[in-house]
Design brief:
The protein is an alpha/beta fold and about 550 residues long. Helix content is about 25%, strand content about 25%. It has helices at about 15-25, 45-60, 80-90, 105-120, 130-135, 155-165, 215-225, 240-250, 275-280, 295-300, 305-315, 325-340, and strands at about 30-35, 65-70, 100, 120-125, 175, 190-195, 210, 230-235, 255-260, 265, 325, 345, 345-350, 350-355, 365-370, 380-385, 390, 410-415, 420-430, 435-440, 460, 465, 470-475, 500-505, 520, 525-530, 540-545. The structure holds adenosine-5'-triphosphate (ATP) and magnesium ion (MG).
Amino acid sequence: MERTKPAPASSNHFIKQIVAEDLKSGKVKEIVTRFPPEPNGYLHIGHAKSICLNFEVADEFNGRTHLRFDDTNPLKEDTEYVESIKEDVLWLGFDWEKLFFASDFFEEMYNRAVLLIKKGQAYVCDLSADDIRKTRGTLTEPGQDSPFRSRSVEENLDLFERMRKGEFQNGEKVLRAKIDMASPNLNMRDPVLYRISHAHHHNTGDKWCIYPMYDYAHPLEDAIEGVTHSICTLEFADHRPLYDWVIRACEMDCVPQQYEFARLNVTNTVMSKRKLKQLVDEQVVDGWDDPRMPTISGLRRRGYTPEAIREFCREIGVAKANSTVDEKLLEHFIREDLKLKAPRTMAVLQPLKIVITNYPEGQVEMLEAEINSENEEMGVRHIPFSREIYVEQDDFMEEPVKGYHRLFPGNEVRLKHAYFIKCEEVVKDEAGQVIELRCTYDPETKSGSGFTGRKVKGTIHWVEATQARKAEFRLYEPLILDASAGESDSFLDNLNPQSFVSVQGYVEDNMKDAAGHDKFQFFRHGYFNVDPKHTSAEKLVFNRIVSLKSSFDATKGKG
Ligand code: ATP
Ligand code: MG
């Protein structure tokens, strides 16, 4: 298979180097990676980093990637999450070679546990979770042997079978590995391999009441699937000896290797399914796909593209030290992606009516404008212009501050793609609120006519009033006020009350066919996405993806 798109140099990370060496030395014949989410929530941008890494490494070396649901905790998991995860991985542009559920392997895992018992490497322990913790020792002190550590193989086999049959209550017994209670690595001090949980499982129903622990299940899943490079995040580095122990002790044919890379953290948001679920459950946000959420589904609804997310993941790279990436770097990549793709039109978010008193009543002329001034290939569009238009309220100041070049009494501005207009009269309601401006226009100044008679300093956007279409604009700011507060458990105390604001305004009539996920650049306002959830035949709703400019320097964006 030929690669059409060479990977940028920055993506030549340590995992790729390991893979390249393993292929060269003949240690492995074919690369197999996996993306192993637990279906206990929707995927977030951190998962996207792991997805890109696993799929792109395998792809580059002509290998394979599996999608595997790590469904070993029935209490927290659900098929809703399974379906959303599949959708998100596909949407990001990746397709798995094979799909697995850890629960497909429960029987084999059970048999391997029986093997461990027979070899004297596992025992049934009656200590409570609390007592197991208390007798585990500390970094400076060894743990204490469980009084059940010396049970006979026969007794262990009998008890383990009865655990499976459901003869015991939750927490009454566990199966533990018999390794070393004095190991300097606490993970090796007789870790729990199986727990009892009388719970209904979304995949296996009521077939099982004992469930394997992550540290036991994960290496076995990898080995059963034939995974060669098991890539996980740094917090599992201390678990690696246990990972290797399980593979060896269970006598697996395939010996996968675990490698750890740094988690992605992004400023001003939360990045853990547990916390994201809290935001959903406490109705701080409008579901997992709320456009403020760092979930893949939230980013999609906000208007992010798979291309922008993939480029972002490449840019941040794969490192061995944790860091936090500025959310503005993500914004940078969506601007880059939409710059040449998104049609550019005008929208007025907070309208103020203007009547052009010297423009003929009843006349509507069509003005021509390029659809994207940076991409001629997109062609031209036609915009109606007439005696009545809307402009932004803040493009007018009755008493202008110094340096204000937009509309104020007596001042002339350029209407984008149209004419110069001059503010002649301000109309107010009884309460003194400005409700309308009366202006005159100069027919000589038509855009594109080559007029050079005089210059004006301000250019403002507008929408023709009689044909304008009402639209709702949803404007977003980061969910969390403080850059790093999302990492703490008290993140709910740092919510940004301004994270969502809705305004009612107008778009050009040529937007009437805009449908779910169409993206536009609204002159001066930024990039917007048609909200697929709220837009209907009667109502256009736009999510602002990102404003146009930022003071952000992309070259310094990596934390
Ligand atoms: P969370 O705490 O958000 O639930 P998790 O690690 O428990 O995260 P899993 O469903 O177990 O979530 O993750 C699937 C894969 O995605 C794992 O290999 C995990 O290491 C990786 N992953 C999860 N979060 C991140 C992140 N922030 N950055 C990079 N990779 C991540
Ligand atoms: Mg998890």
